[in-house]
Amino acid sequence: MDLRQLKYFVTIVEEGQITKAAKKLHMAQPPLSYQLKLIESELGCQLFDRNGRNMILTESGSILYKKAKSLLANFEETIFEVKEVGKGIKGLLSIGVDQTCQNYITDKIVSMNNEYPDLRFKLNEGDTFALTESLDRKEIDVAIIQHPIEDERFDSLILPAEQYVLVTPEKWQLDGPIEMKSLKDIPFLSFYRHRKCNTYKIIIDEFRRHGFTPNIICDCIDLAMIVTLIKEGLGVTILPRNSLDKLSTNGIKILEFVDCNIQSQATIIWPKNRYLSKNARNFISMFNNATTADMEKDIVTL
């Protein structure tokens, strides 16, 4: 069995029919059926249950599919890595980003574009769960998410911390700095995608530390929409300060806290024990250099 036959097998699985797989592979159906028979003959087992034209994996077929996907992906990575050495910096850099971390990447993308004009970028927005799964499936190269993350599949670089702030309608005329207890009965808008995400838990735990839970009247996964609702006077929210840097602040007021003891800390993550492209390595190094510079600045200030 060779890689070509594994590719045939994987395509049949993903298309669900020999006819569709042959069309995708740009070959006739009989030769593809023959290749499948050769594979089954070599392995001495049936890989599919035939249900009319549909092909349903057997237990043996499922095992082979999983292993074949991994082998083909590793082979493609090897070819790409070898070719990249001689090609320099070009191609596609896929970045996953939490909405509250978007401000971290804009200047980095502009800088990389200026230095490597042949490089293309693909940006995927999502929460921690979605982005870690995308990394695991090799759909993105790196991701920037909110800390903490405890996942042994990834290496990480923690970025400088940011304070959480209260975002409130300007027309409410609240003044800061503000105490957490003053939010007890105020309508609260939850930005986070679901109530199992780490950042949501951190914020709720901070409320509880002050003896209450917030009056959540709306869950919304879109940062711009949350800000618009606040401008209209629906309620308030808590966000990292720098997540608002690229948004219009007309109609909202940003207040610091007197007694909020949590910080936002973005983290850039990438898969362990897997080839990382030059593009991704250069992208990470830009954060590494910036983080080092910030630390040196703090030392000088002290």
From TrEMBL:
Key words of the record: DNA-binding, Transcription, Transcription regulation
GO cellular component: a single term: cytosol
Classification via InterPro entries: HTH-type_LysR_regulators, LysR_HTH_N, LysR_subst-bd, WH-like_DNA-bd_sf, WH_DNA-bd_sf
Entries under Pfam families matching the protein: HTH_1 (PF00126), LysR_substrate (PF03466)
Domain HTH lysR-type, residue spans: 1-58
The keyword Cytoplasm is annotated on this UniProt entry: no
Domain of life: Bacteria
GO molecular function annotations of the record: DNA binding; DNA-binding transcription factor activity
Full protein name: LysR family transcriptional regulator
Source organism of the structure: Ureibacillus endophyticus
